[in-house]
Amino acid sequence: MEGALLMNSFWKRKEENNRFTYNFSSFKKASIIVVLMTSLTINMGFAKEYNKENLNKIYHVYVGNEYIGAVSDEKAIQEIIASKEKVASQQFKGLSIDASSAVKIIPEQVFTNETKDAETLSKLKQSLVAKSDAFTLLVNHKPVVSLKNTEAYEKTVQMLKLQYVSQQELDNLSKRQASNNLPELKDGESRLLNVSFKQGVSGLSQKVTPTDILSPEQAVKFLMTGYLEQETYKIESGDVLGSVAKKHNLTTSELLALNPDITVDTVLQIGQELNVTVAKPFVTLEVKKEKKVAEVIPFKKVIEEDPTMYKGEKVIKQEGVNGKKETTYALTSENGTQTSKVALEEKILQQPVDEIEVVGTKVISSRGTGEFAWPAVGGYISSGMGERWGAFHRGIDIARPSNYNILAADNGVVVAAGTSGTYGNRIVINHNNGFTTLYGHLSSINVEVGQVVEKGSVIGIMGSTGNSTGTHLHFEVEKNGSLENPLSYVGR
Q1: What pTM did the predictor assign?
Q2: pLDDT digits (tens, 9 = 90+) for 82-95
Q3: Which of 58, 161, 420, 450 has the fewest CB within 10 Å, making it most exposed?
Q4: Is the Cα torsion angle 455, 412, 422, 381 positive or negative in sign?
Q5: CB-based burial label for 396 (10 Å; 0-12, 13-18, 19+)
Q6: Cα separation of 341 and 63, whole Å?
Q7: What is the Cα–Cα distance from 326 to 349, expressed in whole angstroms?
């Protein structure tokens, strides 16, 4: 019991001590805060008085996001800006020049002025570039060329189109689009349906360095070739077409295409300049047209066989006549090269007429039958075989026929056809069975050496060539190389 009372008395005294300690600490903190606040109030009041008489103003300079430095005089900054704009305006007349928009000036009040004006202003002169308002042409959202304004941009787009279509075609297209009228094309007439960029072409207003602004003519050249100036190469000792092409990552054929005035046989001269510029267009102009053209429909050649005609003989039974048609085509080209040609409509004006050729299929045997036919159309024997006028007459003469056709006495092959001494024009036929026959004094010959003839076919015309007293046929027969009397084998 006594122990418990002692414990309670201990804890009670400890609690009173803690309260005292806490209260003393709180008092101490409050005192310190009062002292600090008093000091701050005194200092702020002092600072207000000090600012009014002793603070300095400096100017921090930025060009874009780059910190240039601080200067003590804003006027010096403005003088540099004005100078930049004046020089650029004189150099690039007609352009709207601006240098101030790139500069940010931030003032600050300071107790001590420690700026390095000369160094900062020198750095500003080097960093600051006067710029001009421009309208930049974008290809697939990427800037490619900058132009003076939207008018120059529109002119550039128009000039790009005029690389591959005429102004009249563009004007007619605009009129048709406005009137929504599409008249029928005439024969040989074409019209523009559309001209457009295969890439996305747009424009954006922005400020650029004046030297980056191109004229519409320069912009067109750059957009179509990838170069403002043509790159040339001067021939050096030892150069040949292949080596020059390889130096510039070209094939020989590509180099020749770039220089149409030379060929593979041209001897290159030292110092001679060759164009080695390969066009790398930024834009592709797709042109769509339609065109109506008159076209020929070729006639067909039809072959008919005739078994009654000899093989090798041909007769035109019907002359061929070409037909006519009108075709309307849809034509597509890219940068002047045709990529597509599709027939939209075809109208037949005249059907073609087939040519019919009749060819013989009858095969003539080159071997004789052994029986001879009378070699003329009628007539009589005006002179027989044997002695005549002090000489030997080798055959028979046939005169006064119904017509002058001379006929092959039997199947055979022509082994001679032409002029021969006293016979005049004569034909010799080998009948391939031991017999040959000769036909002399002809006025004309209708066969050739090597030609197979059929018994009874016309081989020539009766005449009076060579040693002859009048129009007649001299006819001879040989058997195995010996003369035979024709009358022993032919009959009328």
Answers
A1: 0.55
A2: 999 999 999 998 89
A3: 450
A4: negative
A5: buried
A6: 57
A7: 7
